[in-house]
Give the backbone structure.
Amino acid sequence: MTSHRFKRLFHSVFTKLLMATLAAGLAITFTVIAGFLIIRFHTENAFERNLLLYTEYLVEDLGDPPDENRAQEIARRTGMVIRFDHTGRSWQTGRTPRSFNLDRAWIHHHASGLWMGSSKGHHFIRLTHGGGELTFIAIRDARHGEHAIWILAAMALAMCTILGASYFYIRKILNPLHTLKAGVDEVGAGKLDHRIPETGHGELRDLAQAFNTMAERLSKLLHSKEQLLLDVSHELRSPITRLKVQLEFLDDAALRESLRSDVIEMEAMVTTLLESARLRHAAAALNLKTIDMGDLIRSLALDFKDRLPGVKLGPLVDEPVKADPDKMKIVFRNLLDNGLKHTPEDEPAVSISMAQKPDSLEIVVEDRGEGIPASELPHLFEPFYRPDVSRSRKTGGYGLGLSLCKAIVDAHGGTIDLVSTLGKGTRVTVTLPRS
């Protein structure tokens, strides 16, 4: 699960944009650093040329051999350290930093009798003069390192601030995509009246408008289809009633009973179809009451006590729930009837149980019957759909039972899920909000 989340995060558009921003920031930083180093290199070359020219004047000023007192005066005024190494007498105008080491210095320029280089940021010129070696050391400011640390810290803080601002800006830009995904989930769950706000400008606003237009057309298309089915069902009631009247005038009793059975079946189908369509669009018409779902299930189980293999009550919770008791009875009566219908009499009884969750109540109906093929599961809640291609009345009804159950559960703000394994049984879970 963690690997899947990490992979999804890694491949998200947001992560890619953030990585692109980070890469751009690093590229800009490295470019600035490279430019700074190039400028510093040329500046150091100019500095060393000027230092060399200045040193020539200082050598002339010190005399030959170098005058230590004069060297002390020059050192005081310039901040340099002047050192003279001679076999007879050596002197130095001041202390050199601990980090300065001539043996490990970087020599930038070397000519006959002259060395120029640096060690840990301290520049020096060493030359042969007065029978010995005269060294001029330009000491780096002791606060230079502290300044560098502060500058680097400020740069790091600026980079973090830029990346943080980029993070929130990208999230703001991509926020309509999260809204669009939520809208797709809502429409996919059957809430065709859901619309997403058309905010912002540019392509994302156009995408939101296109989504809302699509949802509107889809809603109208399905509404027209269901309205047509509803109108046809209404119109069928009158001819069915006339048929029932005309059947009473038939002399052949056997034919009359056969036709009456077919007409009754047609009338039941029309009634079920009308009830399903009405519930699908009439959530506000639910007669909500505070009911004890445990008591409701116990009373329903008594209606199936004479049907094999029977109904077994699992753990039940006496939890009050806001629901329409009549509609809930339709749901669980259909689920129990389906379970008994598809379970052989010598198999274990169909079980119904409850589980209490923090925000919901789960009611599970489970059987050990013949099961349903995996390819049929996505279509089971569609009206008139039946896995039995022969559509025999002996193995099922009109294919409206589960569709009706879903319409009722949706009207209550709940969910209904079905899991089945061929040859092992079916498990239906109804989840209702507790509030």
